[in-house]
Task: structure prediction
Amino acid sequence: MIKGLLFIFFGVFPIAYGQYCTSNVGPTSTVDSNVELVQIAGTVGNINFIGCPAVIGVQDLTNLSVTLNAGGSYMLNVKFGTCGGNYAGVGEVWIDFDQNGNFDPYESIGTWMGTPPVATSTFNFVVPSSAQNGATRMRVMQREAGSLPLNPCGTYSWGSVMDFGITIGNGIDCTGYVGDDEIDPINVTALPFTDTRDNSFCYSNNNYVYPSPDIYYKLTPNPLIQTVSASLCGASFDTFLSVVDMNGNVLAFNDDAANCGSQSELTFETAGLGSVYIIVEGWGSEMGNYTLTLNADYVGLDEEEQLSSIRVFPNPTNGSVRLNQAIGKATLYHVNGTELAKYDTDQSLHIDLSNFQAGSYFLRSVDGQVSQQIVLVK
Result:
């Protein structure tokens, strides 16, 4: 289903990148409700934190860290209390096991409700075997006069938010998984292009449209391409697909395609574009398996050939061709868009292809008025 807020977002803001909500999060006052104690013994290291005095916003305690092993069982002690008066409230704890930059509902390891003073709460939990190796965070939140479940990115008057460091060991090794962000995208080197992946592990959230993990592809359209179509039809989850330029400006997006239900597909024009990012993600927190298919439509060669008296012959060829008339300066491209050679047909109508491998090529005048496809066979 298409979501109204999404259109508001795209209409006002470019796509932004980042992780972990830390700005405008948590309490705006240091009085009353506050987490008094956080204790956990890891496979390596211990955290034994004593709260009070309270802190406005998110208290960054990631320098206090423990190592937890995937599949291991652990016990966390939290005392939801106060630095002043005693008022009813709620509390919750999350660990970002999948390292997607969010504290998702499925990553909650315990909740509390009551009025201080109360006994220390003990949360027994198991680190998922699918947890990813590396550094992540645990967020402990208390909110006076709140209700469960808590919003880990919420702002309110009284309570506390504390982030601790967690290092996951013996989990999934994500080394070599490219495409996590715009800095390390999957490069699309030729069209058509097909890539099958699973964004439920080894990928984080770097695109603020939805909190789901996203995967970045980088495409630099060649001069012969007129439009590119992208499809996620057949994915195992509700997808969202977007195209942005290098400055994060949205060029195209699709939530639910007419031809493939809750999966996405779109087509965008490439004239005048430099490199773009094609971003695959899920609606909301959705994730799973998908196949991205990219196809190109090239500049109207058929129409131009029908309207133009320009011809190359012989075509197909096994080594060289001649033009029946000059077209000025021209460039030879491989079908993948790689520029191979330049010619001045005012000087010679002969085009030597003997140094190139068999395949499809395009000869295009510099002014773009003439394009001819050449098939080389050897």
User: Anything to note?
Assistant: The first helix runs from residue 4 to 12. The helical segments are 4-12, 301-307. Confidence is low (pLDDT under 50) at residues 1-18, 301-307.
